[in-house]
Amino acid sequence: MNETEKIAALIPRLRRYARALLGDAVAADDLVQDTLERAWRKAALWRPGSDLRAWLFAIMHNLFVNQVRSRRPDKEASLDEGALERPAAADASAGVQLLDLASALARLPPEQREVLLLVGLEELTYREAAQVLGVPVGTVMSRLARGRERLRQLMNGEGGAPSLRVVK
C-alpha cells in the first residue's frame, strides 16, 4: 500500500476526530480538507517508517489550534445533530445519553477535549497523543485525568464551575 492509499484509509478516522472536536460536520470536513492539503504540501517532511496517523493528527491539531486562536472570543462552537455518529439504539435513553455526552464534551476546555478524543475515541497511546499535541506524556496524563473527571461531573449533572483547591 503506497502513502496515498494509507492516507485515504485514515480519512474516516480524521473525519470522526474532527467532528467530535468541532461539533459541526461542515467545519469538520473543512478541517479534514485543510489537513489533507497541508499534508500533501508538506509530504517531504514526513519520515517514512514513522507513524503516519500521528503525523496527520498532529497537522490537524495544529490547524485546529490556529483556528481557535483566530476565532473571536464571543463565538462558541455548537454541536450539530450529526456531530457524533450515533449507533442504532434499542431505546431512546441511549440516544439521550449520547447527546448529553456530546454536549458535555463541547463544554470541556479544548486541551482536555483533544486528549479525551485522541485517547478514548481514536485509541492513541499516551505517547502518540503527546506527539500529536506536542506536549510531554505527563501533560497528556494530567489533562486526561482532569478531562475525565470534569466529563464525569457534567454527565452527573454537576454543571457548575469546578471547585478550586488551594495548593501549598
Structure overview:
The protein is an all-alpha fold. The chain folds into two domains: 1-73, Orthogonal Bundle (Rna Polymerase Sigma Factor, Chain: A); 92-159, Arc Repressor Mutant, subunit A. It is built from seven helices and no strands. It has helices at residues 3-22, 25-41, 52-70, 92-107, 110-121, 126-133, 137-155. α3 packs across α6 (126-133).
End-to-end separation: 55 Å
Shape: globular
Q: Could you report the average pLDDT, rounded to the nearest whole number?
A: 82
Order of helices and strands: HHHHHHH
CATH architecture descriptor of the largest domain: Orthogonal Bundle
What CATH first level of the largest domain would be assigned? Answer: Mainly Alpha
Number of strands: 0
Layout of helices and strands, plus pairs?
Elements: H1 3-22, H2 25-41, H3 52-70, H4 92-107, H5 110-121, H6 126-133, H7 137-155
What is the gist of this entry?
With 168 residues, the chain is mainly alpha-helical. It has seven helices and no strands.
Task: Write out key terms for the chains shown.
168 residues; mainly alpha; Rna Polymerase Sigma Factor, Chain: A; Arc Repressor Mutant, subunit A; 66% helix; 0% strand; globular
